[in-house]
Amino acid sequence: MNCDDARLLIHGHLDGELDLVRDLEVERHLEECPRCAREYAALRAMRTRLKEEEFRFEAPAELKEKIRRSIPEPSPRRANAYPSQRGPWAPRAIRFAVPMAIGAMLALVIMPRALAPNANQRIAGEVVASHVRSLMAGHLMDVVSTDQHTVKPWFNGKLDFSPPVTDFAKDGFPLVGGRLDYLEGRPVAALVYQHGKHVINVFMWPATGEATSAQRIETEHGYHVDQMTVAGMNCWVVSDLNQQELDKFAGLLRAKG
Amino acid sequence: MPDETKAVDFDRTFLPHMDAAYNLARWLVRDDHDAQDVVQEAYLRAVRFAGGFRGGDPRAWILAIVRNAAFTWLKRNRGADQTTEFDEQMHGEAIEENGLEADTVRKADGALIRAALDELPAEFREVIVMRDIEGLSYKEIADAAEVPIGTVMSRLARARAKLARSIQDRIAKER
């Protein structure tokens, strides 16, 4: 990251608005660049000052009173204690909303059973949940490294298998780290790759049974999930990347197997 | 369940944000009486349009109305000068270095900081007030100021750089 980029991104960093990968990049840059670190310290001090009470104007009491009085009392839009006095839209809204809400609740209760998802769909769900959790909880990586020779040994002694670790940086998918995760009732290796702003999680554990060909399992949350067997490993790839790019990445991964 | 089907309770939803509304209006129009007019006008509009409120953050919703009322007021009362001084790409692509020391800001006189903020273009004042004083998220600022979320960070970066620079210049002049 250069200083021009940093000078913009430190604001997102200050405001806690960056995705994890970029946030880490900014943090690394601030550690290395005293000039940007000084800018950042000044911005942070400035923001702390601006939070002081003296910079916030409070509405004058007479304005509040005026506004309160100016709000028409029997506003047809306002909730009312008596349904009969509600606007004509209200009973209609209830007529639609209540059955819809009940329907939605029933769907939640019944669907998972009625659809009886096969094992793959269930794992896909777990994979997506793990992916989302890894992005949320500040727990994307246990070992941060773009070096496959650092990431691979890190798993030693933590897993009863050794996952294949390859960096695809020259193809536009740099390895950024790895962590332990838990899927299907067992500890698994999670490799983290990056493509632009997007994060790709690859979950791996030894395949049991015969090798499966690659298949795509769509999920409803805007994430794409690919499943394949690579070097005897059951591989699950998940990302919010678009189809083509994820296909490209899956191709790279498979070519290793 | 029945709560979702009710109309929004205007008093309880929007009246608690009168201070936030006034604060934004006061920073934008920079005059106590005019700010009161703007807020009152905004609340009258809000009452009329409350039916269009679809949940979400009521503060961001009311602030969107306040900022529109304030910008309308600025245009009407101060001619074009407010908008011509603002240009998203004023200083090219890069954000200027602010050259400010953290310790200097910490010790700076409050009146000096206020004056520096007061002199920023309205679009810059707006994002700083929404983010730093009111604590809105980028998404809420994007909604309230009706700009793409990607614009929020760059505008904020430029606004803060300009504010820091102005604070620095003012202090240098005092010495």
What is the 3D shape of chain A? flat
Q: What integer value in Å does the Rg of chain A equal?
A: 26 Å
**What portion of residues of chain B belong to β-strands?**
under 5%
> How much of the sequence of chain A is in beta strands?
15-25%
Q: Quick one: how many beta strands of chain B?
A: 0
Q: Helix/strand/pairing class of chain B, anyone?
A: mainly alpha
Q: Report on the biggest sheet of chain A.
A: 7 strands, antiparallel
Mean pLDDT of chain A: 79
Structural class by secondary-structure content of chain A: alpha+beta
Number of strands of chain A: 7
The biggest beta sheet of chain B, please?
none
Number of helices of chain B: 11
CA-CA gap between termini of chain B: 63 Å
Order of helices and strands of chain B: HHHHHHHHHHH
Give the helices and strands, then pairings.
The complex is a heterodimer of chains A (257) and B (175).
Chain A: H1 3-14, H2 20-32, H3 34-50, H4 61-70, H5 89-115, H6 119-136, E1 143-144, H7 148-154, E2 175-183, E3 186-195, E4 198-206, E5 215-218, E6 224-230, E7 233-239, H8 243-256
Antiparallel strand pairs in A: 1-2, 2-3, 3-4, 4-7, 5-6, 6-7
Helix pairs in contact in A: 1-2, 1-3, 2-3
Chain B: H1 2-5, H2 10-14, H3 18-29, H4 32-49, H5 58-78, H6 81-84, H7 102-107, H8 110-118, H9 122-133, H10 138-145, H11 149-174
